[in-house]
Every structure is written in structure tokens, then in C-alpha cells.
Design brief:
Helix content is 59%, strand content 16%. The chain is α+β, with helices and mostly antiparallel strands and 164 residues long.
């Protein structure tokens, strides 16, 4: 398979894949991969989301909302939170138990998820209850990309789906 097609196939099968993961999977050197990704992006076949710490690559046609959710599904803590909220709205204490992380870690993750518009907080009898803003989109993304998340042990995701 030609390098370009190999890269595009890898991105389509693993939306939100990190630059370093593509390098590892393909065996391409940094400069060679950078060249190919630039050409593929210019051709409109992929979208590269660049942040100071990491570049994530998505298939063309991935919306901003989808890429934000996918990015969060590739993080073990936020993934646990999102999967738990798919089942039901939960209090902070319940989410701490489901995420199996410290209160501080869950709090930071929830703050980020709320800022990104994926989760919202509401008051119910004086308790903060968290709920998803778009359950159907999250459910469809998990269903569509579940195999790539399970296979991606570098992101420590497979343990979440085994509990479903």
C-alpha cells in the first residue's frame, strides 16, 4: 500500500490519532511523515488539529463537535465519565466512583467537559448533577469508532469498553 493511502487508512480507522502514533504505526521518520501529512491535509483528505502539546488527525468531514468528543474518548478518565453519563445523569460523588480517580482529577475533567459543551451541570435538590448535552452523538461515535479505541492500547482505552 502506498504511504499516503496507508496514512489515510490509519486516520480513517483511528480518528483523533496522534502524530506520534502514526509515526509508530507506519515506521515513518518525523520529516517524512510531516511531509506526507501536509500534502494529505492540503488535498483535503484529513484535518489536523494542532495544539501546543499534541497534534491529532481526523478524517475529512469530522465536525468540531465530533473531534472534541473523540479527543475526550481517547483519554481514559474523561472516557469513563462520558460512558457513565451515557447510562444516566450522575452526581459528582457518583462520577468519582465510576471514574475510579481522585475528586480533583474528576473535577478538572468535568470542568473541561463542561467548558467544551459536552456535559452540563444542573442543580437537583441542592446537588450538582451532570448530564450529556448530546447523548445520541456520543453514542453513535462510540458505536462507530469502538474498535479503534479498543485496539489503541497506547491511550489506555480498552479497559473502559470491556466494562460495557
Amino acid at each position: 500500500m502506498e504511504r499516503v493511502e496507508q496514512i489515510v487508512h490509519l486516520v480513517n480507522a483511528n480518528p483523533g490519532i496522534r502524530y506520534s502514533e502514526i509515526m509508530m504505526e507506519t515506521g515513518l521518520k518525523n520529516g517524512v511523515l510531516s511531509h506526507h501529512l501536509s500534502k494529505i491535509e492540503q488535498a483535503g483528505r484529513i484535518i489536523i488539529e494542532r495544539t501546543p502539546r499534541v497534534a491529532r488527525i481526523y478524517p475529512c468531514g469530522t465536525s468540531q463537535q465530533e473531534s472534541t468528543i473523540i479527543k475526550n474518548l481517547r483519554n481514559a478518565t474523561t472516557q469513563r465519565i462520558l460512558v457513565a453519563l451515557l447510562e444516566e445523569d450522575l452526581t459528582f460523588k457518583e462520577l468519582v466512583g465510576r471514574a475510579k480517580k481522585s475528586q480533583g482529577t474528576v473535577s478538572l475533567s468535568l470542568k473541561k467537559l463542561c467548558e467544551e459543551g459536552i456535559v452540563r451541570r444542573k442543580l437537583d435538590d441542592g446537588l450538582s448533577v451532570f448530564q450529556l448535552t448530546n447523548k445520541s452523538l456520543l453514542d453513535s461515535l462510540i458505536d462507530k469508532h469502538k474498535p479503534s479505541f479498543i485496539e489503541n492500547s497506547a491511550n489506555n482505552i480498552s479497559d473502559i469498553f470491556s466494562s460495557l
